[in-house]
Amino acid sequence: MTTATVAMVEVDGAVRVLLSGDLDATSRRSVLEVVEFAVVLSETIALDLSLVAFLDAGGIRALLLAMSFAEERGAVVRIQACSPRLQRVLDTMGLDHETLRPRSS
């Protein structure tokens, strides 16, 4: 397992948060901290998961908590990129690839 890394860049008034490595319960604090900061910079946040190698239930919970935090403060948060491997995980869990909300049948 590799530790999750988080980077952030502001482009045209929006903030892109790039997550890489393994996203699990141990990376929750890092994800929350960067999203908390991103909300200060912009009301539009894109989470780029294209470099995430591993995602488990703890990682999904971290993403959901971060997205909920941002949305409660008026920000729009979307998943910008997701690897095919992560798409399969989200499909298995019945979650939308862009919003992480449950998909309707």
Short description:
With 105 residues, the chain is α/β, with parallel strands linked by helices.
Detailed description of the structure:
With about 100 residues, the protein is an alpha/beta fold. It has a single domain (about 5-95), classed as Transcription Regulator spoIIAA (2-Layer Sandwich). The chain is about 40% helix and about 35% strand. It has 3 helices and 4 strands; from the N terminus they run ββαβαβα. It has helices at about 30-40, 55-70, 85-95; strands spanning about 5-10, 15-25, 45-55, 75-80. The protein has a 4-stranded mixed β-sheet with strand order 1-2-3-4, covered by helices on one side. A hairpin with a 2-residue loop joins β1 and β2. It starts with a strand and ends in a 12-residue tail after the last helix. The mean pLDDT is about 90.
